[in-house]
Structure to design on (285 residues):
Protein backbone atom coordinates (compact mmCIF):
# COMPACT_ATOMS: atom_id res chain seq x y z
CA UNK A 1 0.00 0.00 0.00
CA UNK A 2 1.23 3.46 -0.81
CA UNK A 3 2.62 5.96 1.66
CA UNK A 4 0.77 9.27 2.09
CA UNK A 5 2.09 11.97 -0.19
CA UNK A 6 3.44 14.99 1.65
CA UNK A 7 2.89 17.60 -1.05
CA UNK A 8 -0.32 19.62 -1.37
CA UNK A 9 -2.00 20.28 -4.69
CA UNK A 10 -1.85 23.72 -6.32
CA UNK A 11 -4.95 25.47 -7.62
CA UNK A 12 -5.89 23.92 -10.97
CA UNK A 13 -8.87 23.32 -13.22
CA UNK A 14 -9.78 20.93 -16.02
CA UNK A 15 -12.72 20.27 -18.28
CA UNK A 16 -15.03 17.39 -17.33
CA UNK A 17 -14.30 14.47 -16.99
CA UNK A 18 -10.64 15.33 -16.31
CA UNK A 19 -7.49 13.37 -17.13
CA UNK A 20 -4.46 12.23 -15.18
CA UNK A 21 -1.98 13.92 -17.50
CA UNK A 22 -2.99 17.41 -16.39
CA UNK A 23 -2.99 16.76 -12.64
CA UNK A 24 -0.37 18.17 -10.26
CA UNK A 25 0.71 16.19 -8.33
CA UNK A 26 -0.13 12.92 -10.05
CA UNK A 27 -2.36 10.61 -7.99
CA UNK A 28 -0.94 7.36 -6.67
CA UNK A 29 -2.94 4.34 -7.88
CA UNK A 30 -0.54 1.78 -6.47
CA UNK A 31 1.31 1.42 -9.75
CA UNK A 32 4.61 0.97 -7.95
CA UNK A 33 3.44 -0.18 -4.54
CA UNK A 34 0.58 -2.67 -4.69
CA UNK A 35 1.65 -6.30 -4.23
CA UNK A 36 -0.87 -9.07 -4.83
CA UNK A 37 -1.12 -12.47 -3.18
CA UNK A 38 -3.67 -14.36 -5.30
CA UNK A 39 -6.73 -13.33 -3.30
CA UNK A 40 -8.88 -12.95 -6.45
CA UNK A 41 -7.37 -15.76 -8.51
CA UNK A 42 -9.69 -16.89 -11.30
CA UNK A 43 -12.26 -14.15 -10.78
CA UNK A 44 -13.67 -11.82 -13.44
CA UNK A 45 -14.53 -8.23 -12.53
CA UNK A 46 -16.36 -5.31 -14.13
CA UNK A 47 -15.28 -1.85 -12.95
CA UNK A 48 -16.94 1.36 -14.10
CA UNK A 49 -14.80 4.48 -14.13
CA UNK A 50 -11.73 2.24 -14.24
CA UNK A 51 -9.55 4.50 -16.35
CA UNK A 52 -8.36 6.68 -13.45
CA UNK A 53 -8.91 7.51 -9.81
CA UNK A 54 -10.35 4.89 -7.47
CA UNK A 55 -11.40 2.68 -10.38
CA UNK A 56 -7.88 2.55 -11.77
CA UNK A 57 -6.40 1.69 -8.37
CA UNK A 58 -8.98 -1.07 -7.99
CA UNK A 59 -8.26 -2.43 -11.49
CA UNK A 60 -4.53 -2.60 -10.80
CA UNK A 61 -5.06 -4.27 -7.42
CA UNK A 62 -7.61 -6.75 -8.75
CA UNK A 63 -5.29 -7.77 -11.58
CA UNK A 64 -2.35 -8.23 -9.25
CA UNK A 65 -4.61 -10.39 -7.07
CA UNK A 66 -5.38 -12.62 -10.06
CA UNK A 67 -8.60 -11.24 -11.60
CA UNK A 68 -9.41 -10.47 -15.22
CA UNK A 69 -10.94 -7.02 -15.58
CA UNK A 70 -13.39 -5.20 -17.85
CA UNK A 71 -13.05 -1.44 -17.54
CA UNK A 72 -15.95 0.81 -18.47
CA UNK A 73 -15.01 4.46 -18.99
CA UNK A 74 -16.29 7.59 -20.73
CA UNK A 75 -13.72 8.85 -23.26
CA UNK A 76 -10.37 9.11 -21.44
CA UNK A 77 -8.71 6.70 -23.87
CA UNK A 78 -5.10 7.43 -22.96
CA UNK A 79 -5.73 6.93 -19.25
CA UNK A 80 -7.71 3.74 -19.91
CA UNK A 81 -5.01 2.27 -22.14
CA UNK A 82 -2.42 3.04 -19.49
CA UNK A 83 -4.53 1.24 -16.88
CA UNK A 84 -4.90 -1.73 -19.25
CA UNK A 85 -1.12 -1.87 -19.54
CA UNK A 86 -0.77 -2.37 -15.80
CA UNK A 87 -3.48 -5.05 -15.80
CA UNK A 88 -1.81 -6.93 -18.64
CA UNK A 89 1.63 -6.60 -17.05
CA UNK A 90 0.11 -8.48 -14.11
CA UNK A 91 -0.67 -11.32 -16.50
CA UNK A 92 -4.41 -10.73 -16.60
CA UNK A 93 -6.85 -9.86 -19.37
CA UNK A 94 -8.21 -6.32 -19.68
CA UNK A 95 -11.23 -5.42 -21.82
CA UNK A 96 -11.85 -1.71 -22.43
CA UNK A 97 -15.41 -0.51 -23.06
CA UNK A 98 -15.66 3.25 -23.73
CA UNK A 99 -18.98 5.05 -23.68
CA UNK A 100 -21.38 7.10 -21.58
CA UNK A 101 -23.10 4.97 -18.94
CA UNK A 102 -25.78 7.65 -18.55
CA UNK A 103 -27.02 6.28 -21.89
CA UNK A 104 -29.03 3.21 -20.93
CA UNK A 105 -28.56 1.60 -24.35
CA UNK A 106 -24.77 1.76 -23.94
CA UNK A 107 -24.98 0.64 -20.33
CA UNK A 108 -26.88 -2.47 -21.44
CA UNK A 109 -23.90 -3.58 -23.55
CA UNK A 110 -21.37 -3.76 -20.71
CA UNK A 111 -22.33 -6.93 -18.84
CA UNK A 112 -22.98 -8.91 -22.05
CA UNK A 113 -19.49 -7.95 -23.20
CA UNK A 114 -18.02 -9.19 -19.91
CA UNK A 115 -19.92 -12.48 -20.20
CA UNK A 116 -18.77 -12.87 -23.79
CA UNK A 117 -15.15 -12.32 -22.78
CA UNK A 118 -15.02 -14.04 -19.38
CA UNK A 119 -18.07 -16.31 -19.24
CA UNK A 120 -19.20 -14.87 -15.90
CA UNK A 121 -19.08 -11.83 -13.61
CA UNK A 122 -17.72 -12.56 -10.15
CA UNK A 123 -17.33 -8.95 -9.06
CA UNK A 124 -19.18 -5.79 -10.11
CA UNK A 125 -17.74 -2.46 -8.98
CA UNK A 126 -20.15 0.42 -9.67
CA UNK A 127 -17.70 3.27 -9.27
CA UNK A 128 -18.17 5.83 -12.07
CA UNK A 129 -19.81 9.05 -10.94
CA UNK A 130 -20.49 12.64 -11.90
CA UNK A 131 -20.53 15.70 -9.66
CA UNK A 132 -20.42 19.45 -10.08
CA UNK A 133 -20.04 22.18 -7.47
CA UNK A 134 -22.80 24.81 -7.24
CA UNK A 135 -23.72 27.46 -4.68
CA UNK A 136 -27.47 27.42 -5.37
CA UNK A 137 -30.06 25.11 -6.92
CA UNK A 138 -30.66 27.78 -9.55
CA UNK A 139 -27.25 26.86 -10.96
CA UNK A 140 -28.25 23.20 -11.38
CA UNK A 141 -29.92 22.75 -14.74
CA UNK A 142 -32.56 20.09 -15.30
CA UNK A 143 -30.21 18.38 -17.75
CA UNK A 144 -27.39 18.28 -15.19
CA UNK A 145 -29.71 16.82 -12.56
CA UNK A 146 -30.88 14.13 -14.98
CA UNK A 147 -27.32 13.35 -16.04
CA UNK A 148 -26.16 13.03 -12.43
CA UNK A 149 -28.98 10.63 -11.60
CA UNK A 150 -28.50 8.62 -14.80
CA UNK A 151 -24.75 8.28 -14.26
CA UNK A 152 -24.66 7.67 -10.53
CA UNK A 153 -27.90 5.74 -9.95
CA UNK A 154 -29.60 4.43 -13.06
CA UNK A 155 -26.39 2.92 -14.44
CA UNK A 156 -25.82 1.14 -11.12
CA UNK A 157 -29.34 -0.29 -11.29
CA UNK A 158 -28.94 -1.45 -14.91
CA UNK A 159 -25.51 -3.01 -14.39
CA UNK A 160 -26.49 -4.75 -11.16
CA UNK A 161 -29.69 -6.13 -12.66
CA UNK A 162 -27.80 -7.39 -15.72
CA UNK A 163 -24.88 -8.86 -13.75
CA UNK A 164 -26.72 -10.88 -11.10
CA UNK A 165 -27.88 -13.69 -13.44
CA UNK A 166 -24.23 -14.24 -14.39
CA UNK A 167 -22.86 -14.17 -10.83
CA UNK A 168 -21.98 -17.48 -9.20
CA UNK A 169 -22.33 -18.00 -5.44
CA UNK A 170 -19.60 -15.95 -3.83
CA UNK A 171 -20.21 -13.08 -6.22
CA UNK A 172 -19.69 -9.57 -4.93
CA UNK A 173 -21.28 -6.22 -5.73
CA UNK A 174 -19.26 -3.24 -4.51
CA UNK A 175 -20.71 0.24 -4.94
CA UNK A 176 -18.83 3.49 -4.42
CA UNK A 177 -20.85 5.67 -2.06
CA UNK A 178 -19.28 8.68 -0.30
CA UNK A 179 -18.88 10.42 3.02
CA UNK A 180 -21.39 12.82 1.40
CA UNK A 181 -24.06 10.21 1.96
CA UNK A 182 -24.01 11.16 5.67
CA UNK A 183 -22.29 14.55 5.61
CA UNK A 184 -23.70 16.18 2.47
CA UNK A 185 -21.83 19.16 1.11
CA UNK A 186 -24.31 21.92 0.25
CA UNK A 187 -22.30 22.60 -2.91
CA UNK A 188 -22.71 19.00 -4.10
CA UNK A 189 -26.42 18.49 -3.38
CA UNK A 190 -27.35 16.32 -6.42
CA UNK A 191 -24.21 14.19 -6.06
CA UNK A 192 -24.64 13.79 -2.30
CA UNK A 193 -28.24 12.71 -2.79
CA UNK A 194 -27.19 9.97 -5.20
CA UNK A 195 -24.47 8.75 -2.85
CA UNK A 196 -27.00 8.31 -0.03
CA UNK A 197 -29.23 6.40 -2.44
CA UNK A 198 -26.29 4.16 -3.44
CA UNK A 199 -25.73 3.18 0.19
CA UNK A 200 -29.44 2.44 0.59
CA UNK A 201 -29.68 0.42 -2.65
CA UNK A 202 -26.62 -1.61 -1.66
CA UNK A 203 -28.17 -2.54 1.68
CA UNK A 204 -31.29 -3.72 -0.16
CA UNK A 205 -29.23 -5.86 -2.55
CA UNK A 206 -27.40 -7.50 0.36
CA UNK A 207 -30.72 -8.73 1.72
CA UNK A 208 -32.39 -9.49 -1.61
CA UNK A 209 -29.65 -11.78 -2.98
CA UNK A 210 -28.20 -13.36 0.15
CA UNK A 211 -29.95 -16.64 -0.67
CA UNK A 212 -28.01 -16.77 -3.94
CA UNK A 213 -24.71 -16.36 -2.13
CA UNK A 214 -24.16 -12.88 -3.60
CA UNK A 215 -22.82 -10.21 -1.27
CA UNK A 216 -23.31 -6.44 -1.64
CA UNK A 217 -21.31 -3.75 0.14
CA UNK A 218 -20.47 -0.11 -0.39
CA UNK A 219 -17.36 1.95 0.22
CA UNK A 220 -17.65 5.54 1.45
CA UNK A 221 -14.57 7.50 0.40
CA UNK A 222 -13.76 10.89 1.80
CA UNK A 223 -11.75 13.45 -0.21
CA UNK A 224 -9.70 11.41 -2.70
CA UNK A 225 -7.30 13.02 -5.19
CA UNK A 226 -8.70 12.04 -8.61
CA UNK A 227 -9.33 13.85 -11.94
CA UNK A 228 -12.92 14.44 -10.85
CA UNK A 229 -11.71 17.05 -8.35
CA UNK A 230 -10.00 19.61 -10.63
CA UNK A 231 -12.65 18.91 -13.29
CA UNK A 232 -15.64 19.72 -11.08
CA UNK A 233 -14.52 22.11 -8.35
CA UNK A 234 -13.42 25.76 -8.33
CA UNK A 235 -9.65 26.29 -8.26
CA UNK A 236 -9.61 27.64 -4.71
CA UNK A 237 -11.44 24.55 -3.42
CA UNK A 238 -9.03 22.29 -5.27
CA UNK A 239 -6.12 23.99 -3.53
CA UNK A 240 -7.58 23.32 -0.07
CA UNK A 241 -9.10 19.95 -0.97
CA UNK A 242 -8.77 17.39 1.81
CA UNK A 243 -7.46 19.77 4.46
CA UNK A 244 -10.76 19.68 6.34
CA UNK A 245 -10.56 16.03 7.48
CA UNK A 246 -8.77 14.94 10.68
CA UNK A 247 -5.83 13.53 8.69
CA UNK A 248 -5.60 16.98 7.03
CA UNK A 249 -4.89 15.74 3.53
CA UNK A 250 -6.68 14.12 0.59
CA UNK A 251 -6.44 10.37 0.26
CA UNK A 252 -4.75 8.68 -2.66
CA UNK A 253 -6.67 6.16 -4.82
CA UNK A 254 -4.17 3.48 -3.77
CA UNK A 255 -5.39 3.88 -0.20
CA UNK A 256 -8.87 2.68 -1.28
CA UNK A 257 -7.86 -0.38 -3.29
CA UNK A 258 -7.23 -2.78 -0.36
CA UNK A 259 -10.79 -2.25 0.88
CA UNK A 260 -12.25 -3.16 -2.51
CA UNK A 261 -9.96 -6.21 -2.69
CA UNK A 262 -11.16 -7.42 0.69
CA UNK A 263 -14.84 -6.96 -0.20
CA UNK A 264 -14.32 -8.77 -3.52
CA UNK A 265 -12.46 -11.67 -1.97
CA UNK A 266 -13.73 -14.86 -0.37
CA UNK A 267 -12.15 -13.65 2.87
CA UNK A 268 -15.16 -11.34 3.20
CA UNK A 269 -17.62 -14.23 2.95
CA UNK A 270 -19.67 -12.94 5.92
CA UNK A 271 -19.40 -9.26 5.06
CA UNK A 272 -22.55 -8.09 3.30
CA UNK A 273 -24.69 -5.00 3.75
CA UNK A 274 -21.70 -3.06 5.09
CA UNK A 275 -20.59 0.46 4.28
CA UNK A 276 -16.86 0.92 4.79
CA UNK A 277 -15.59 4.42 5.57
CA UNK A 278 -12.28 5.48 4.01
CA UNK A 279 -12.59 9.11 4.97
CA UNK A 280 -9.40 10.36 6.59
CA UNK A 281 -11.09 10.38 10.00
CA UNK A 282 -14.59 11.74 9.32
CA UNK A 283 -17.15 9.29 10.73
CA UNK A 284 -20.16 7.97 8.88
CA UNK A 285 -23.31 6.94 10.74
Amino acid sequence: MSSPRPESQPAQQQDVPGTLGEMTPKPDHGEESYRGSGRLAGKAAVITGGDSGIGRAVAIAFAREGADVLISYLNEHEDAQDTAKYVEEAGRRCVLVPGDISDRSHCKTIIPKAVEEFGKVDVLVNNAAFQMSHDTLDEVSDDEWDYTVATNLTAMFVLTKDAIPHMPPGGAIINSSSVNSDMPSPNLAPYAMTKAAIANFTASMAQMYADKGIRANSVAPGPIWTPLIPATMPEEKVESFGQQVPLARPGQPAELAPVYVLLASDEASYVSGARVAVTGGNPIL
The mean pLDDT is 91. The chain has one domain: 20-278. The beta strands are 44-48, 68-73, 94-98, 123-126, 172-176, 215-221, 275-278. The chain has nine helices and seven strands.
